Amino acid sequence: MSFALKLPLSGANLIKDTIKWLRDNQMWPKRAKVQKVDNGFVFPLLCTERRDAVNICTHFGVCELIEPNESLTTWESSQQKFSRYLDEHDVPPIKMKIDRYGDIAVVFIPTDKQIHKNIYGNAFLHVFSDFDRVCIKSVQCDGTFRAAQYEIIAKRDGAPNDLCSIYTESGTRLHIDLNKFFFSSRLASERKRLRNAIQEEESVLVMFAGSGPFGTVIARENPFVKRLTMIEMNPECENYIEKNINENNLENVVDFFIGDVNVVLPELDGIYNRFVLPCPRIAIDYVPLLIENQRIFADNCFLHLYVFCSEEELQSHIIRAISMLEGALMDILKVESHKSGSQNASTIRFCIDIEFKRTD
């Protein structure tokens, strides 16, 4: 429990100075907020000793000291609430690491502490009211469709037993199921980067589209996209891609195909300016397939090729991709690379951006 100060309504002009003084004197909890009540403004204090709280109150003069009580727990930081809950249940502390997927929280619990996983799960529910399910990853991404497996370790009464949710990103609503296909909220900034890269009217092809996060975000958030096509092999994704297209009113812009890209790509018609291959394990191996079907290339094209590698290995991947394009008589206009996350300390996800031009 902690103390708080209450500043009268007449002291509204002192709010900023009060917060600054508390911060300067390390008495302001991280991410704390001033709460307006009927007769004043309440400031949480980062102290549990009454003597310290009285001294602070005396410094300000016009403030009233609020004693610790149950309502004060709402002014604790999230980490403080989390730690207090764990203390009350006699389990060792862990860091609050959360990936948010709508009303689902994916959390990390060290292996040696997973004997207490249900208590940790309930601690997250205690702290965060916007979640109704908490889960941990039980099987890493694997197999043809790169799907991980998750275990629900805590849920609220009435919450579903599945891992379906609606995830919102940059105003785009995405239907997801964490146990059926690969999806990562950590790629949000990368999807935003590609969305912003399109500065004039373009047609876009997304291979290995999954449930459609790259394609849906790019098409919805950029008015220059006149057509976007997605290809995905996992049949579990079909229903979700269709939902995402309809949810975001993209029926007139986006089309998709469920099937092997080796079969679907040669059957495509139309011309594309931009190619997105967001499957880092295999993407570079499909550059020859694109070149074989270069009839769908516009005069100027952009290739976004994702790879997993170390810093030292990146250049060899860039050289390989450029060599394949130059071997097909493409002029390379610009090459850049961007970090977009990592698997571990030595394996980084890079996006190789190549702008090229047809010479025929």
Please summarize what this structure is.
With 360 residues, this protein is of the alpha/beta class.
What keyword list fits this structure?
single chain, 28% helix, alpha/beta, 360 residues
Can you offer a commentary on this structure?
Helix content is 28%, strand content 32%. The chain is of the alpha/beta class and 360 residues long. It has a seven-stranded mixed β-sheet with strand order 13-12-11-14-15-17-16, sandwiched between helices. Helix 3 crosses helix 4 and helix 5 packs across helix 6. The radius of gyration is 26 Å and the shape is elongated. Residues 70-74 have low confidence and may be disordered.
Instruction: Write the element-wise H/E pattern from the N-terminal end onward.
Output: EHEEHEHEEHEEEEHEHEHEHEHEHEE
Please tell me the overall pLDDT. 88
Sheet having the most strands = 7 strands, mixed
Distance between the ends: 73 Å
Number of strands: 17
The helix content, as a percent range, equals 25-40%
Residue share in β-strands: 25-35%
Shape by Cα distribution: elongated
Strand order of the largest sheet: 13-12-11-14-15-17-16
Rg, Å, rounded: 26 Å
* Structural category: alpha/beta
Task: Count up the helices.
Answer: 10
Which stretches are poorly predicted, pLDDT < 50 over at least 5 residues? Answer: 70-74
